[in-house]
Design a protein that fits this description.
The protein has 407 residues and is mostly helical. Helices cover 81% and strands 0% of the residues. The N and C termini lie far apart (76 Å). The model has no long low-confidence stretch (mean pLDDT 85). This is Chromate transporter. Pfam families: Chromate_transp.
Length: 407
């Protein structure tokens, strides 16, 4: 009887898993199409879709995931998406979440490499409008996270100090230092206090698989240059260059640009003009800035080059997240770690607040009309509960109106 019951339940579990993976793919693809504004804006979009609307994670767990991904090298917003995907559907779920979020911008940039190199995206009104959308999205996310993660005087002070340090010393290592110091403050002040029990995050990855992912990350970083020196395969040289760039970047997508420039220009893969044109296009499309690698690969070797470059630059991020999360959930249950995370979460709010000002505000709000549009979009998000996929086209149309009528 029990064997029969098990056989009946098996298709139900498989259908449930397939349904969950399909939902994850559709949601992440929607985010990949609508998430304009860079990595910090992406965290705002994720917060709105994954946390507020679908409640796949609680606020504290989301902030902790953001903090972990800020510390790890690689594209932080993509790593957060991969992490949420892993929690929903294991390694395959992480792959599906990454694929959905990344695919739209990869396709757009490869098409740009083929067909659109003469288009000027720098002064397009709709792009200006999408930058203003990012202001509203991030402001909304910061406000929501601050209510939960920095609600009292001491945690608000940590958040403000974190924002100040991040703005006054804008380096990737400043963020890591701020998170570390905030963790020390949290451990000092909150390790003996009663804190709400953290929800258990089920990470469906075995410890042995996590260790394998971390080992593979380090092994590829060490041995790919050795293999590239021994073998004369053009695809291996490309994979090595982009894997190394994706492994050694702290601080988000913009930091990867000088690394990529040093890899591709001396090798003669493309001209400096082509490099800058692709960078301009990468700023204009939604999704992660790391997909700039798809453009570079396409210029070098068509669709094959685009696929190799994209996989190589994102693979380190995937391996690091998959290798870290299973151990992280065990650590976060300890009382001292919980106190540390209270400070870390407050610092994450401050780091997002700093990013709201620079680069998002300073590059987007240039005139009173820009501020008016941002205020309208913020009001729609906050008080009218409009979803981001509605805010994006409204902001794009508003940017066109501002550029053509008001200015």
């Amino acid at each position: 009887m029990s064997i029969l019951k098990t056989k009946q339940e098996q298709p139900l579990r498989e259908n449930s898993k397939l349904k969950r993976l399909l939902e994850l793919f559709l949601v992440s693809t929607k985010l990949g199409i609508t998430s304009f504004g860079g990595p910090i804006a992406h965290l705002g979009y994720f917060h709105e879709e994954y946390i507020k609307r679908r409640k796949w994670l609680d606020e504290r767990s989301y902030a902790e995931l953001v903090a972990v991904c800020q510390i790890l090298p690689g594209p932080a917003s993509s790593q957060v998406g991969i992490g949420i995907g892993i929690m929903r559907g294991g390694l395959l779920g992480g792959l599906v979440a990454w694929f959905g979020f990344t695919l739209p911008s990869v396709l757009a940039l490869v098409l740009f490499a083929y067909f659109l190199q003469g288009v000027d995206t720098a002064h397009a009104g709709w792009i200006h409008g999408l930058k203003i959308v990012a202001v509203a999205i991030v402001a909304h996310a910061v406000m929501g996270m601050a209510k939960k993660l920095a609600p009292d005087r001491s945690r608000a002070t940590i958040a403000i100090l974190a924002a100040a340090a991040t703005l006054l010393w804008p380096t990737a290592f400043t963020q890591i230092t701020v998170i570390f110091l905030a963790g020390l403050l949290g451990w000092s002040f909150y390790r003996t206090e009663d804190t709400p029990a953290v929800p258990v995050i089920h990470v469906p990855i075995k410890s042995s698989a996590a260790v394998l992912c971390l080992t593979l990350f380090g092994g590829l970083l060490i041995f790919l240059p050795v293999l590239n020196g021994m073998l004369s395969f053009s695809w291996l040289a490309m994979f090595d260059s982009f894997y190394r760039a994706g492994s050694l970047v702290f601080g988000g997508g913009h930091v990867v640009l000088p690394l990529l420039e040093r890899e591709v220009l001396p090798a003669g893969w493309l001209t400096k003009e082509q490099f800058l044109a692709g960078y301009g296009a990468a700023q204009a499309v939604p999704g992660p800035l790391f997909t700039f690698a798809a453009y570079l690969g396409a210029v070098r070797n068509g669709w094959t080059g685009a696929v190799i470059a994209t996989i190589a630059i994102f693979l380190p991020a995937f391996l690091l997240v998959a290798g870290t999360l299973p151990f992280w959930d065990t650590l976060r249950q300890k009382r001292g770690v919980q106190g540390t995370l209270v400070g870390v979460n407050a610092a994450v709010v401050g780091i997002l607040l700093a990013a709201l000002y620079d680069p998002i505000w300073v590059s987007s709000i240039q005139a009173p009309a820009d501020f008016v549009l941002a205020a309208i979009l913020f009001g729609l998000l906050t008080f009218w509960k409009a979803p981001p996929w509605i805010i994006v086209p409204i902001g794009a149309l508003g940017g066109i109106f501002i550029n053509s009528v008001i200015t």
